[in-house]
Amino acid sequence: MSVLTLDRVRIRPGGVTRDEALQEAVDVLVAAGAVTGDYLAAMHQRESTVSTYMGNGLAIPHGTNDAKETVLGSALSVVRYDGGVDWDGERATFVIGIAGKDGEHLEILSQIALLFSDEDEVNRLNTVGSREELFALLSSVNEA
Question: Which of 20, 58, 83, 98 is the most buried (most CB within 10 A)?
């Protein structure tokens, strides 16, 4: 099963608030059948204890361990906000929402971290013009 599909990849020309970005991530994951709507509260709870901003323009919001009953399956949402998102004083361009069933999120997280640790790769991700191209560059996460 693919954790990332084309319908879960979006490119937004503007920027949004962190809360709006969290809401969009959850909306995509709910539509994918990966989480219940209660997952949003778990994401907010995680952010209140530790920021999920990872550097290189990347935030990876996810729920707390206490929220595992809200996770129905493993999936990713990817939204590139060309106008940026103020993430606790940092500028996130990519918000990748993660839902992982049975610990699968750890392998998915390491795949994403690898991709975003390469500055050339991040530049490429920031400059592609379509969600199809963006999906193609990110589809390696499905091999996790």
Answer: 98
